[in-house]
Amino acid sequence: MDFEFITARAPLFGQAARLTVTLAFWGIIFSSAVGLVCAVIRFYRVPLLRQAAAGYIELARNTPLIVQLFFLYFGLPRLGVVWDGETCAIAGLTFLGGGYLAEAFRGGLSAVGRGQIEAGLSIGLNRFQLLRYVIIPQALAVALPAISAAVIFLMKETSVFSIVALPDLMYVAKDLLKEGYSGESNLMLVASYLVVILPVSLAFGYWERRLRFAGFGS
Amino acid sequence: MVNSQEILKIKDLEKSFDGVPVLNRLTLTVKRGEVLVVIGPSGCGKSTLLRCLNGLEPVNGGQIVFEGQILTSFQTSWSRVRQRIGMVFQNYELFPHFNVLENILLGPVRVQGRKKSEALEKAEFWLNRVGLWDRRESFPRQLSGGQKQRVAIVRALAMDPEIMLFDEVTASLDPEMVREVLDVILNLAKEGLTMIIVTHEMAFARAVADRIIFIDQGVIVEDSPPETFFENPATDRARRFLNIFQFDGVQRGSRGTGPKTVPVRL
Question: Which residues in chain A are closer than 8 Å to B110, comparing Cβ atoms?
């Protein structure tokens, strides 16, 4: 094991990790927004939009991210839309994640009891207030394990971003492999992903436990 | 004591579920300050009646007029109306992610746009009245059923409703807890709050009611003062219903003389 090599290349991995985290962060934020909107549309059975949401979710969940990225990076320019690698990466992750998070949120929304909704209505809450104060907080608590699984899945999916020429963790590791330090590179790659994803995983675990103790489950 | 002004007028109200009629041209007028107790066999439509009054069930026909406003219209802003018609449910339905105070303040502050300090004052007043001010920080899961139901009553009262609807509010409670909830409602009745109460607690119905409304198969079969209804019901149907609350006790003879029935009265 060449530790000199590792220390020398660590900043490279640090940079790549930052890029991975940034792209994953925005992708997951936008995914959550898309997922929530789709889930609420399906929850309220909004005509037409509901079918559109269902179609989108199936498309997003049943095609690989790498194919979605190919379409965005190599396909869209043919239609006259040229996006840079980062935009494609975030858009692709949002497209994929929106589908997964929509399903996670939907599970939570359908777990909120009819009686809770009626109680909210009976004090005069309008639809928006009902969502904000009654339905979403309860749905979130129920959906959290599914959300957590989806978020971690999306973070791991960022490893295909190198195909749109982004110097993320996978890209950097592949480069170093060419220099012949395969053991060191692999080790740093694994360590980098763990450093990035493990804290998120632990944070979700903590959040789940806190919500469970803070007032649910009679 | 009872002001003769009409607060609620229900005319020919019709409601059916999947073509099965539940309310059958039901007509009823409620005066301000009146306490109506609605009783009847299960499935008779009494809960449905309350739910229609709060817009939780769309009606199929007829008219509901509340303070001169027609509620059975497409333009009804239920969010506005519900601020004036309080409702308490059988299963409390407190919001599990909010503590007692947050449950109570949600309506007055977020819906009615009142100042928090003012809403808090009102919440304190009512929570003290039901003996739960010191539990204001508790979460619903930390409360007993009776406590939860008292909080649910305060949640509705905090909106300053003009009429309160109680839908079998003690049906899920253990016997000792029934009393603490009923006492709260009795006190509200004494103060002249207009209430429509659906219940199976006959002794309570008799104590609290100005009028007993007996419903069977979606129509009002009897509408009379409690003394008349319980002592001398006018219809056979009501008499049969009241009989199910009476029991014949069984005493076994000591030498195999067979069981001997002794009537037990409430």
Answer: 125, 129, 133
Dihedral sign computed on CA atoms, order A120, A124, A127, A131 = negative
> Is the reported ipTM for this assembly greater than 0.85?
yes
B96 contact A CB<8A: yes
Contact B94, B148 (CB under 8 A): yes
Select from B89, B97, B139 the Cβ nearest to the Cβ of A138: B97
The span from the CA of A25 to the CA of A90, in Å, is 9
Q: How confident is the model at residue B266 (pLDDT cuts 50, 70, 90)?
A: low
Interface contact B122, partner A, CB < 8 A: no
d(CA A29, CA B6): 54
Q: What is the pLDDT of residues A120-156, one digit of tens each?
A: 999 999 989 999 999 999 999 999 999 999 999 999 9
Q: In chain A, what are the domains?
A: 3-213 (1.10.3720.10)
User: Which residues pair with residue B166 across a beta bridge?
Assistant: B88, B197
Residue A116 near chain B (CB below 8 Å): yes
